[in-house]
């Protein structure tokens, strides 16, 4: 059923960027009715993100949109090298080679790999996914202008910026996915903590066919320009063809660039002289900020409204989509009557530390990119200059590996001290941004293993909880099944006797949540009711007390 103006909707999503779209799509995938409002017409004039991380691709796999990402117009044969150089016609200092997307293989720890799919290609894919969900309505030219708490729900005033016409939407929950300048966050009065200005940067998107040929080395995805004063700009192949995004990095103090400054910067980096087509110029401030809290009552913030980070590493949207996947099943659980309020509280408890983690690693990447610092003789055409360039190039190549090899960042995040995971007393593995070590320790992403029938273990997860019974001698699952049935928690038991899965999952019984994270594991069950109550964020009988319809999907 489609919500209409003035209707009540269970969930109102504010903001139709990638995070709002991901939340709407995932809620729709779960059959939850929601309305997404977006103040603009939805067109992307300055694509920001372009790296779709490996964990996001795993979510895309569940949403069945991998083929759309892979089939997006970004050329699959364009090399993905990162190169450090003084200018396209100058000295190459170092390089990290990467194959084109079409040649790269998934690592052994995942059925997917990261993809390059810029926002003007990725947002429409998410939008089409959302449009396929009958329980979701998306309204463009619809801006949240007021928010009032009334009773147990929230009333939002939505205004059409073109006409000024308003209407009211009442909902049980609001999800603020409205970006770095979030209106929702402002209404809630939630402060941001961290560094409000790392650099004042200017992004310039320009068109130039054949730009890569101006450098004699192999075509690259990203060019990072280092001068005697240090690292000063980057250029990325934003569509792998004729469009380029130059970021003039700037400094901690504001500076407005004139058109002449921009032409001079492009000429310095590329040798290109006007006329050529500049498509957009956007000054922005690089920040490392995380909201003090992600929830106030029935209102949540996620994505850039909850955390803003340097793009170095490509973590921003991917972190936001992780937020959306975490919040979606919890909202669904509460609306379906089997999840308790603690489940909603666990959203911030689980995701805020990940926001802090990812934002601080992004800033470390920025410092790595700026690490060459001043080198007065960098362009000197003599032996001392050549030696300096070798030194700078070697050090930068080494430092920048942290930004390019990030499996640990994307797959190794875990929900430590989550109120809805049951700890098993084992110590956490090291949180290494570069390397990911699969584990079934509660709070971690459940590991990927290929099954004998060709599926990934990840393909087993998504709708409800899944209890894996591993090996021929796995204990009887009935106590957990009975306890789940009492609360209405959807639980499927999957028995597998495949040695690779048994080894990777480390215990005979592993309970995996709808978002693919491990909630509990053990070789015996113990207090089944306590386990189920914890993972649903419930007190005994809370589901019944809410008087909601409990979905009987227990097997
Ligand atoms: C140069 C650059 C490169 C980047 N590269 C990457 C990358 O490779 N990978 C990555 O993961 N991240 C990257 N990021 C970060 C990424 O772009 C953001 O994290 C991501 O766009 C955040 O998505 P969002 O949906 O939370 O917010 P946004 O994309 O900002 O979307 C918010 C939406 O809310 C709407 N809105 C705002 N207020 C209202 C209101 N009151 N009512 C209705 N609608 C409203 C806005 O119009 C907007 O459409 C990059 C960022 C930059 C600047």
Overall average pLDDT:
94
Task: Give the overall form.
Answer: globular
Helix content class: 25-40%
Number of strands: 22
Parts with pLDDT < 50 across at least 5 consecutive residues: 1-5, 540-555
Structural class: alpha/beta
State the end-to-end distance.
28 Å
SS element count, helices: 14
Beta content comes to 15-25%
The unique ligands bound to this protein are: flavin-adenine dinucleotide
Q: Describe the sheet with the most strands.
A: 8 strands, mixed
Backbone CA Rg: 25 Å
Overview of this protein structure:
- The chain is α/β, with parallel strands linked by helices.
- 30% of the residues lie in helices and 24% in strands.
- The strands form four sheets. Strands 1, 2, 7, 8, 9, 10, 16 and 17 form an eight-stranded mixed sheet that branches. The chain has an eight-stranded mixed sheet with strand order 5-4-12-13-14-11-15-18, with helices on both faces.
- Helix 1 packs parallel to helix 7 (316-336).
- Residues 14-20, 37-40, 48-51, 143-144, 177-179, 183, 203, 284, 303-304, 311, 314-318, 320 line the site of flavin-adenine dinucleotide.
Give the arrangement of secondary structure elements.
Elements: E1 8-14, H1 18-29, E2 34-37, E3 51-52, H2 54-63, H3 66-70, E4 82-85, E5 92-96, E6 115-116, H4 119-131, E7 136-139, E8 143-150, E9 153-159, E10 166-176, H5 183-188, E11 192-207, E12 222-227, E13 230-237, E14 243-248, H6 259-270, E15 277-291, E16 295-296, E17 299-301, E18 307-308, H7 316-336, H8 341-369, H9 383-404, H10 407-411, E19 465-470, H11 478-487, E20 491-496, H12 499-505, E21 509-512, E22 518-522, H13 528-535, H14 542-545
Parallel strand pairs: 1-2, 1-10, 2-7, 4-12, 10-17, 19-20
Antiparallel strand pairs: 3-6, 4-5, 8-9, 9-10, 11-14, 11-15, 12-13, 13-14, 15-18, 16-17, 19-21, 21-22
Helix pairs in contact: 1-4, 1-7, 7-8, 8-9, 11-13
Bound molecules: flavin-adenine dinucleotide.
Flavin-adenine dinucleotide binds at residues 14-20, 37-40, 48-51, 143-144, 177-179, 183, 203, 284, 303-304, 311, 314-318, 320.
